[in-house]
Amino acid sequence: MKKLDRELFLWFNQTGSESIDWFWVFLTDKFVAVPFFGILMLLIWYKSNFKIAFVVGVFLVALVGFTDVFATLIKNWVERPRPCSVNSILSDQVRVVSDGLFSSLTKSNAEKCEKFSFFSSHAAVSFALASFLGLLLSQIRKSALGWMLLWAFLVSVSRIYLGFHYPSDIFVGGIVGVVFGFIAFEIYRTLTRNYLSKFVFKPNK
């Protein structure tokens, strides 16, 4: 399995070129996600009211924080070197691209590559947000969950392309994210239906 993991990583990582690097860097940048989710929060506000949007926002912040902390704890416990780390057997074969629109390649190598790899925080957080919001927004459009999960998949895959994670890091991170997202949504739905009925998301037509 480890050999297959490395082969899949190298296959996708080395298919890159400077002409499309910008696309994956754009997707992976955390700051790009801020306006994206800001628009979704405005949609929730528009379809309900400010109080409901605020409560949903609190759940999202808590979900992101919990998922990110959990992923960091697992990384520090497993201590798996990233593909681009100097401690990786693939270090001389990895094509490393910038970790974001405002990150230099030097900074990516010096800081990002020497952090641990398993599992991907990007994948876990992206899939957690996608699952929660996808389930919520499916009340407006049934295809919302599918589109949100596609976004999370692309963000996660960008981590392989850019040289920071193995496919297994993404796979496990995605599963963890989906589980956390579904649990958070069920908690939100249970609390709002049983105890906070005025905060139930019922979109206006």
Low-confidence stretches: none
How many runs of DSSP E, i.e. beta strands? 0
Percentage of β-strand residues: under 5%
Total individual domains: 1
Rg on CA atoms, Å:
18 Å
Structure in a nutshell:
The chain is mostly helical.
Structure explained in plain terms:
With 205 residues, the chain is mainly α. It has one domain. Helix content is 69%, strand content 0%. It has 8 helices and no strands. The protein has helices at residues 2-13, 18-28, 30-47, 50-78, 105-112, 121-137, 144-161, 167-194. The model has no long low-confidence stretch (mean pLDDT 86).
Highlighted features:
205 residues; mainly alpha; 8 helices
Write the layout of secondary structure elements.
Layout: H1 2-13, H2 18-28, H3 30-47, H4 50-78, H5 105-112, H6 121-137, H7 144-161, H8 167-194
